[in-house]
Design brief:
Helices cover 23% and strands 23% of the residues. With 397 residues, the protein is α+β, with helices and mostly antiparallel strands. It has a domain of 105 residues: Urease metallochaperone UreE, N-terminal domain (HSP40/DNAj peptide-binding domain, Sandwich). Strands 10-11-15-14 form a four-stranded mixed sheet. A three-stranded mixed sheet has the order 1-9-8. Strands 2-7 form a two-stranded antiparallel ribbon. A hairpin with a 2-residue loop joins strand 10 and strand 11. Helix 2 runs antiparallel to helix 3. It is found in: Cytoplasm. One of its GO terms (molecular function) is unfolded protein binding. It holds the Pfam family DnaJ_CXXCXGXG.
């Protein structure tokens, strides 16, 4: 939601009520608490609460992203140390950000900042973009402003085990900034924002200072390069409206409990037609009465009789789809796991894990006279054959 050029005058840590040393989990908890307390659905008509909600969302958009947070911290540190010539300090601060004093006439060595390789920041991303917009080696900027984007949104869903294993689609209700239905997100009543005359559409204004071309975000258009001269009455020129919307989320097969699914461009709409943020769906999976899983393997425990293990048999076993027949070899011990290839959790590429079938003997709680007589006859025959189930156990010979 915030472009790096907008970060200089923001205190995102204060907006969330956390310290700059707060952990990612502490930042997340603080954001959720503020979002829950100030959500417009819970405070209808309360403009102050809505403003606090949006401020918290903007702060979390930066601090909740590891890469953005690092860039933000580095930028704020340099501003505190006077690291930008013309913005306080001594015209460029000592060692901050790789600036090195070269004496009274040689100025600064920016090679560390703009290095495309090695330890400096890249010109094509990160803080290199921020520095590049201020110091352009006398060439003028020649670059368009990086567009802002909408805030990322996080929501939670709960799935049955089999839905998570096989994949599903589920409707999700969201509340937040969406493109204005009147101006289709442009913010302009005519749908055609004008090119900013002050920056000629670049989003930056330049000033030559000695050997350097100094650039800074255009304050006329907010560094967008466009200016709305005929604001839409429905959204007051912002291009967005706060409303509820429903989207269908496709959950891929094989998601696990606690996994997050990212849907690019399904977050809040950006201002004046800029890109939307992303939607992150956190998945909770309910346990199943029959199945568990180990990686991509599906596990099931099947009750069997002693006779089925001793004599061998073919049993029917459930899967995520239709049941399968599994052959139990004669003499199979209780607790043995049999493997059925390719009937487990689906993987990418059309393959699947295996079905792991563990057999467990179930003992009847009661027998009729005929069954008891037959079992006694068998037990005697077992003893006569010399079979001892405890042979070799606990030191027995």
């Amino acid at each position: 939601m915030n472009a790096p050029s907008e970060w200089a005058d923001k205190d995102f840590y204060a907006d969330l009520g956390v310290s700059s040393s707060a952990s990612a989990e502490e930042i997340k908890k603080a954001y959720r608490k503020l979002a829950r307390e100030n959500h417009p659905d819970a405070n209808p008509g309360d403009d102050a609460a809505e403003a606090r909600f949006k401020k918290a969302a903007a702060a979390y958009d930066v601090l909740g992203d590891e890469k953005k947070r690092k860039e933000y911290d580095q930028l704020k540190a340099m501003l505190r140390n006077g690291g930008f010539p013309g913005f306080g300090g001594n015209g460029g601060a000592g060692s901050a950000g790789g600036f090195r004093s070269q004496g009274p006439t040689s100025g600064f060595d920016f090679s560390d900042v703009f290095s495309r390789t090695g330890g400096g920041f890249s010109e094509e991303g990160g803080l290199g973009d921020i520095f590049g917009s201020f110091f352009d080696r006398g060439r003028g900027t020649g670059r368009a402003a990086r567009p802002t984007r909408g805030a990322d949104v996080e929501t939670e869903i709960t799935l049955d085990f089999r839905e998570a294993a096989k994949g599903t689609t589920i409707p999700v209700e969201l509340s937040g900034n969406a493109p204005c239905t009147t101006c289709h997100g442009s913010g302009s009543r005519s749908g055609k924002p004008s090119t900013c005359s002050k920056c000629s559409g670049t989003g930056f204004v330049s000033e030559q200072r000695g050997a350097f071309g100094m650039s800074q975000p255009c304050d006329e258009c907010g560094a967008t390069g466009k200016k709305v001269t005929d604001p839409c009455s429905a959204c007051k020129g912002t291009g967005t409206q706060y409303r509820k919307r429903s989207i269908t989320v496709r959950i891929p097969a094989g998601v696990i409990d606690g996994q997050k699914v990212r849907l690019a461009g399904q977050g809040e709409a950006g201002p004046n037609g800029t890109p939307s943020g992303d939607l992150f769906v956190s998945v909770t999976v309910r346990p199943d009465k029959v199945f568990t899983r180990s990686g991509d393997d599906l596990e099931v425990t099947v009750p069997v009789s002693f006779a089925e293990l001793a004599l061998g048999d073919t049993i029917t076993v459930p899967t995520l789809d239709s049941p399968v027949k599994v052959r139990v070899p004669a003499g199979t011990p209780d607790g043995r796991t049999l493997r059925v290839r390719g009937r487990g959790i689906p993987k990418r590429g059309g393959k699947a894990g295996d079905l792991l079938v563990t057999v467990r003997v179930t003992v009847p709680s009661s027998l009729d006279d005929a069954a008891k007589s037959a079992l006694r006859t068998y037990a005697q025959a077992e003893r006569d054959s010399g079979f001892d189930p405890r042979a070799g156990w606990a030191g027995r010979s």
